Structures are given as structure tokens and as C-alpha cells.
Amino acid sequence: MTTLITPSIVAKEALLVLENTIVMPQLIHRGFSSEYQKIGSTLTIRKPTSFSASAVSGGTARHMNTITESSVQIILDTHLDVSFEVSSQEMALQVKDFSEQFIEPAMIAMADTVDTKILDHFKDVAGHFPVSATPVIADIAELGAVMDVQQVPASGRRLVLHPITKSGYMAVTAFHEANRKGDGGRALREAEIGRVLGFDTFMEQNVLKHTQPIADAAGALDGAFPNGATVATVDAITSGGTVLVDDVVKFTGVDAWFAVSKLATADGTTAIISFDQSNATGADIADNTVTTIQKTHRANLAFHRNFMAMAVAPLPPPLSGINAAVVSSRGLSMRVVFDYDSSIKTNVVSIDMLMGTKTLDQKLAARLTDAR
Question: What residues does 32 pair with on adjacent strands?
């Protein structure tokens, strides 16, 4: 007996497929509203709780942490839609066949868009370490050191690698050995590589590229970069060379990393570079300190789940009389509408969802920059 394909069936199947396809939302903090929202709405979600520890000695009263329910507001600025035409004969397919032919490819496209939107937050991240010309396992160890300096919790660290970066490390024997340690025989999802030097590591084909075509990857400070300042002057950059927003900069010998906040062009002598964050090292960074700008790279990303958040809310059903369903499950929500387009004389199925993302703490992440 043929099961009638309904919006509710399609929505439930779409949610199941999407949940089994997305990678990034499962690795970050998430929030959900059960109330209908529209594009541009602001959703308030619970922020991860943090504590502080204090030393006590005999006769000293202990410090009691006050647990305050904190929240963060996220704008639901992304309305994703996948619509497709179906014939009456195709609407009569079995659910399994309909899913394979229409729902699965539609949700793969939506999952790619969701993952890409999350990965685009690499632009907020200043911490970084470059992949060696020939990748070595020490790259991953050094990336872990960047996370240590930034005081990222040792547990719950994730690392997502572009397929090209992954292939470079898969040729390293030590990477395979690290991969086997501490994995506990856990069944790995298709995207999961395993646990490597403290990182739960995944392949993610949607890792983005940052483009920086500047001729000079290294200059030097022209004058000190004062403690507390957000602007530094750098020389030895070819005239006309441009430092771009979201470029990342490292000063040799300084355990701090900086992201560029404003476009700057070298005038033949110097470039005045503005950063998202101030020099918080506690001291001036000295004149002539070598200054390295990361050139074009794949922005592989290491992070803790509290680095950023994704929020989802259900879209309202359309006007009465329209064949539609809204289904929510496990922090995701899907609206499905069946319609008829008289201009092209065919049935149309629309699957859409509403979401937003926000960086919570950029210091809980670091880029593994692959310029190869």
C-alpha cells in the first residue's frame, strides 16, 4: 500500500536526514526557541556557565561562585530554503524512494550551507599556527599550544580540517599513531577522523579560504606597539601592499595573536594596522619586532564548543488553506509547504528553516592556516 506523501512526512524525514548530515552544529553551543519567529528576529539563548577558582588558606573564608543565569542575543538572519518541482507521479512514490530522490540531496545542500555559515566565523579568530610546507605532527602540537596560551579548556577541543589539509597529515605516520590513541573503539561518523593530540578531529569539506595576496608576508614594527594599544605601525611592506580585514598577524617572540579590523595600504614606507583586540601582553612590543601576516590560506579551525553558538526557531505556518507542516526536533526545525505554480503548471515542494549564529569568545578558537 502506497503511503501518501504529506508535508509532515517530508518535514520529519528532512529533519532526520539533516541531523545525520550536518557536522558543525553538533560541535558548538546551540539554542532553540519553540515560538514561531521571522527573519531578523532576535532570539535570546542561555549562555554557557563559567566559574572561577580561588586559593584558600587556614582561617580564610572560601570564595563562593554566584551562579547567574546569563544569556546572549542572536539575530535570526539566515532563512534557508530548498524548493523543487515534483510531478504527481513522483508524489506517489514510496517515502523511501521520495527521500532518496528529493529529500536527501536537498538536505545535503542545506547542510553544506549551515556548515559554511558556521565556519565563516573563522574571520573572528586571531589565534593561529601555520601548516608546515610538508605537514608534520608537530603542527598539531603547536596548535594545541596556541589553545593552551589562550586558556582554552583541555577537554572538549575540536579540530576541523579541509580535505586537502587532511590528506597532507594522513601521509604522516605519527598522525595515524596519534589517531589511534585514546579512541576507545568508538564508532566514528563518516566525518570523524579520531582523537589527535587532544583534539576530536573531523574532515569538513566546507572549510573556507582566506585570501591575502600581499607580496610581503613579513615586516617589522616601526616603533613600539604599546601595551593597551590597538594600532601598530609596520614597515618593510611593498608600497601599495594591502593588509585586509580578518588577516591575522603574529609578532615574533610574543605569545599573542591579532586579527586586523581595518583595511590598511602601505604607502611605500609603512602600513598602519588596526586590530580587533588591544595589546594585552602586559608590556610594549618592541620596535623592529618581526611581524608576520598570514597569506592566503585554508582556515582550518580548532575550537571549544563555547567558541560560538547557533540558534534555531520554527517558521510560522502559511495562511490557512495552504498544505504545510512545521516540525521541530533536537534543536532543529523545518517548515515544508506543498504548492502549485500555475505559471509553470507543476507542483512545488519548499523546505525551509530559520537560523542565526554568533561568536561568543574568539579566544576559544584558533586557525590552522594551510597556505600550501
Answer: 312
End-to-end CA, the chain? 56
Q: Say how many residues make up the chain.
A: 372
The per-residue DSSP string of 251-263 comes to: ETT-S-EEEB-S-
Domain at 212-295, CATH homologous superfamily: Translation factors (2.40.30.10)
Which range is most confident: 39-53, 243-257, 314-328?
243-257
Q: What is the DSSP string of 276-340?
A: SS---SSSPBPTT-EEEE--SEEEEEEEEGGGEEEEEEPPPP-STTSEEEEEEETTEEEEEEEEE
User: CA-CA distance, 9 to 232, in Å (whole number)?
Assistant: 58
Residue ranges covered by each domain of the chain:
7-47+71-121+308-360, 124-209+299-307+364-370, 212-295
- Write down the pLDDT at residue 66: 60
CA gap 121, 159 in Å, rounded: 14
Backbone angles phi, psi at 155, to 5 degrees: -90, 150
The residue written with cell numbers 526545525 in the block is 333
Specify the 3-state DSSP secondary structure of 227. Answer: coil
**In 219-235, which positions are buried (b, 16+ CB within 10 angstroms) versus exposed (e)?**
bebbebbeeeebebbbb
Residue 371: pLDDT above 50? yes
User: Percentage of residues in the chain with pLDDT exceeding 90?
Assistant: 75
3-state SS, residue 219: strand
Give the closest residue to 243 by CA, choosing from 209, 284, 213, 279. Answer: 213
CATH number assigned to the domain covering 7-47+71-121+308-360: 3.30.2400
